[in-house]
């Protein structure tokens, strides 16, 4: 007569293959758990506070105006090298240049310039001494309505090339070049500047949804690249 195993011993016998299959050496661990955690955090619904939107307006305005300044310097250097002031003059509209215009569309922003000594009369404005402060930290950010934000900072003559059109006539600007400028802009006042001097202000009008999207992208968590082991 066969002797039957106790129920507990029989259960252990049945579970033995499963226990051996769970050997720690055979468990496959996920190698990108940090990346997955970061991505999960980025997809969390987060509440954007009014102060966050004002901070994002300053970031967006800085990004837009610096893009405009970089692109203008590149275009002006190229055009002045190709054909002097005559070739460069039609392109001195940074808010209309391709990269700047593309970024403005992403931010849902309208970029403009204002000065109390403009070249183009449409840019004429009475600016306060504070608005013309050349300090790089000067920013005026506001929210005039629920859906609209505004940004302003000084526009400073920061490149030697700009003196070719905005410097002192007869010293930085050749007489023939100034004649071209006056032909295109008869009411021009934008000369006599020196390097480092404020010429006016950048102004941007931005929509809330563009600012919110920019804040979201700027605050996304980004994983640092791992250094190779070998």
Automatic annotation (TrEMBL):
Domain Tll0287-like span(s) in chain numbering: 108-203
Pfam families registered for this protein in UniProt: Tll0287-like
Q: Write down the superkingdom of origin.
A: Bacteria
Keyword list, A-Z: Signal
Q: Tell me which positions the record assigns to the signal sequence.
A: 1-21
Q: What is this protein called?
A: Tll0287-like domain-containing protein
Give the organism the record lists. Hymenobacter amundsenii
Give the taxonomic lineage as stored in the record: Bacteria, Pseudomonadati, Bacteroidota, Cytophagia, Cytophagales
């Amino acid at each position: 007569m066969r002797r039957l195993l106790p129920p507990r011993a029989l259960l252990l016998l049945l579970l033995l293959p499963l226990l051996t299959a769970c050997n720690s050496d055979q468990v496959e661990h996920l190698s990108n758990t940090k990346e997955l955690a970061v991505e999960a955090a980025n997809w969390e619904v987060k509440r954007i506070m009014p102060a966050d939107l004002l901070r994002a307006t300053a970031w967006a305005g800085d990004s837009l105006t610096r893009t405009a300044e970089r692109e203008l310097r590149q275009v002006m250097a190229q055009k002045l090298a190709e054909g002097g002031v005559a070739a460069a003059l039609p392109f001195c509209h940074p808010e209309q240049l391709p990269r700047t215009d593309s970024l403005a569309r992403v931010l849902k922003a309208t970029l403009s310039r204002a000065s109390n000594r403009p070249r183009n009369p449409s840019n004429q404005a009475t600016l306060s001494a504070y608005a013309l402060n050349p300090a790089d930290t000067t920013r005026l950010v506001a929210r005039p309505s629920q859906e609209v934000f505004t940004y302003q900072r000084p526009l400073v003559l920061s490149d030697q090339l700009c003196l070719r059109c905005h410097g002192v006539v007869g010293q930085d600007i050749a007489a023939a070049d100034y004649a071209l400028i006056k032909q295109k802009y008869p009411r021009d006042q934008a000369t006599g500047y020196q390097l480092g001097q404020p010429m006016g202000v950048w102004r941007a009008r931005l929509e809330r949804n563009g600012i919110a999207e920019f804040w979201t992208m700027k605050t996304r968590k980004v994983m640092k690249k791992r250094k190779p082991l070998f």
